[in-house]
């Protein structure tokens, strides 16, 4: 299946997800805690159920990995798989903040080949297909060109700037910013609005698979904290942290980490 066909499917599905999520936003949805995983709302589940029906119905041979679906080993036998976060930034959603997103990717033999990150409340749709560039609402986007970490504007939590994470305990002097959704942070880097994003904790694939392709197709580079390119639809669907930036800045960040 051509990546463009999968991308068209993801775009339609993401927009339908936005219609569902908007109905729950700031309407007091039911909220509960998943053990060890933080809060989930009835909006997360409603979106997940729709995406599972629509996407799996359209591509019955694809594997399925979603934050809100119990994982099963059958996906590992599929060359292509959906990697989905039905609602990335659930805490922002609960708090009434607009910075939550739907993150949808198709992965082929470990590599994302089609991806959408959609922010319904801002009507911002980031999209990419392998080899065809990245767009925001249909307009091409590119990463920022800076390659110096000190002074860069970086989407990162304060905890990732503790001295023990950095070589020689030399913490970079950055303009620190934050957004709740990891997928949105990566998309903002792809858009060139921020120089880099960084997270040093083990990170679930569904949070970053779509963003990884969008950044890469925008001319950037995405690696784990060791500088290795992440592979998706793995048996344990986590990556060892994420660095996303232009190629030169990504290389500097990786070299300065302890």
Automatic annotation (TrEMBL):
Gene3D superfamilies named in the record: 3.40.190.80, Fructose-1,6-Bisphosphatase, subunit A, domain 1
Keyword field: Magnesium, Metal-binding
Family under the similarity heading: Belongs to the inositol monophosphatase superfamily.
UniProt name for this protein: 3'(2'),5'-bisphosphate nucleotidase CysQ
Source species: Sinisalibacter lacisalsi
Origin organism lineage: Bacteria, Pseudomonadati, Pseudomonadota, Alphaproteobacteria, Rhodobacterales
């Amino acid at each position: 299946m051509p990546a463009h066909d999968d991308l068209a499917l993801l775009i339609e599905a993401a927009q339908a997800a936005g219609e569902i999520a908007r109905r729950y936003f700031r309407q007091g949805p039911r909220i509960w805690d998943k053990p060890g995983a933080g809060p989930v709302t009835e909006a997360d589940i409603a979106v997940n159920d729709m995406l599972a029906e629509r996407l799996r119905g359209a591509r019955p041979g694809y594997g399925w990995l979603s934050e809100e679906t119990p994982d099963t080993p059958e996906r590992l036998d599929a060359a292509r798989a959906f990697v989905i976060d039905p609602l990335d930034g659930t805490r922002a959603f609960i708090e009434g903040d607009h910075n939550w997103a739907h993150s949808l990717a198709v992965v082929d033999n470990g590599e994302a080949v089609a991806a959408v990150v959609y922010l319904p409340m801002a009507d911002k749709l980031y999209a990419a297909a392998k080899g065809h560039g990245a767009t925001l609402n249909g307009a091409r986007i590119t990463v920022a060109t800076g390659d110096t970490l000190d002074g860069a504007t970086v989407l990162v939590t304060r905890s990732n700037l503790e001295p023990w994470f950095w070589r020689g305990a030399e913490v970079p002097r950055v303009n620190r910013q934050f957004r709740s959704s990891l997928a949105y942070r990566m998309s903002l880097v792809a858009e060139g609005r921020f120089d880099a994003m960084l997270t040093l904790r083990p990170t679930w694939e569904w949070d970053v698979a779509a963003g990884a392709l969008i950044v890469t197709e925008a001319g950037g580079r995405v690696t784990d904290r060791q500088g290795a390119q992440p592979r998706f639809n793995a048996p344990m669907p986590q990556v060892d942290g994420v660095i996303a930036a232009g190629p030169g800045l990504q290389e500097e960040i990786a070299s300065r980490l302890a």
